[in-house]
Design goal:
Strand order of the largest sheet: 3-2-1-4-5-6-7
Distance between the termini: 36 Å
CATH topology: Rossmann fold
Pfam family, one: adh_short_C2
CATH architecture: 3-Layer(aba) Sandwich
EC number: 1.1.1.47
Number of strands: 7
Number of domains: 1
Family: Belongs to the short-chain dehydrogenases/reductases (SDR) family.
Keywords: Oxidoreductase
Shape: globular
InterPro entries: KR_dom (IPR057326), NAD(P)-bd_dom_sf (IPR036291), Sc_DH/Rdtase_CS (IPR020904), SDR_fam (IPR002347)
Strand content: 5-15%
Radius of gyration: 17 Å
Length: about 250
């Protein structure tokens, strides 16, 4: 029996990259998936098609998790479609670097609204439906450990997310809802391509610092998330698993 058989999962920001890999992997393990997207409808529908063609269950649901009403509607859509909610993966995030002289209020608010407020709003909505055995997995970043130049705001959002996750692990534990963090190292995605990191000296620097000697791939992260979503991780909460090939 697949380890997530009968479970329902919402994966935010699942139209591409790490989120898409997570959605497909959870579906492969038997979960019904709500593939959330903010703007890339075609990408989300492609993920749904990949899941359903393999015999899984999935729907695409649009929603900007940094808006309370849309975060609420996303979770309600999952319950209406599949009858329950067992897993929330807070993957939505803005990946954008800027040196300190280029940091603006708009840059700060955009990153914090999606990367931090979005997690709070989605978790707030989901916590009303999650029960005993529920699992929340927040996607952070190893950048909080390696202190990459030009990443002050982005790293700040992920540091905040780590602290929030620890608080929520304790807050939701009496209801037997687990909250854990996965912190990827450098991963080749559409986002890192768009940011100009792939193929750059920055990527070469990340790989040089990585004991396993390569960049990460989305599937490297998805497997860790699937473990945390499953009953195999029933004794884990408040943990931060750094999935980075050994970079610290």
């Amino acid at each position: 029996m697949s380890k997530l058989e009968g479970k329902v999962a919402v994966v935010t920001g699942a139209s591409k990259g790490i989120g898409a890999a997570i959605a497909k992997t959870l579906a492969k393990e038997g979960a019904a998936i709500v593939v959330n997207y903010a703007s890339s409808k075609a990408g989300a529908e492609a993920v749904v098609a990949a899941i359903t063609s393999a015999g899984g269950r999935a729907v695409a649901v649009q929603g900007d998790v940094s808006q309370a009403a849309e975060a609420q509607a996303l979770i309600e859509a999952a319950v209406q479609q599949f009858g329950r909610l067992d897993v929330l993966v807070n993957n939505s995030g803005v990946y954008e670097f800027a040196p300190i002289e280029d940091v603006t209020e708009a840059h700060y608010r955009r990153l914090f609204d999606v990367n931090v407020l979005g997690v709070l709003l989605a978790t707030q909505a989901a916590s009303k439906h999650l029960g005993d055995g529920g699992s929340i997995i927040n996607i952070s970043s190893a950048i909080t450990h390696v202190h990459t130049p030009s990443a002050a705001v982005y790293a700040g959002t992920k540091g905040a997310l780590n602290a929030i996750s620890g608080v929520l692990a304790n807050e939701l534990a009496p209801r037997r809802i687990r909250v854990n963090v996965v912190s990827p190292g450098f991963v080749v995605t559409e986002g890192t391509h768009t940011a100009g990191v792939v193929g750059s000296d920055m990527e070469a620097g990340f790989v040089a610092q990585t004991p396993l000697g390569r960049a990460g791939q989305p599937d490297d992260i998805a497997g860790v998330v699937a473990f945390l979503a499953s009953d195999d991780a029933r004794w884990l909460t408040g943990e931060d698993i750094t999935a980075s090939g050994g970079i610290r």
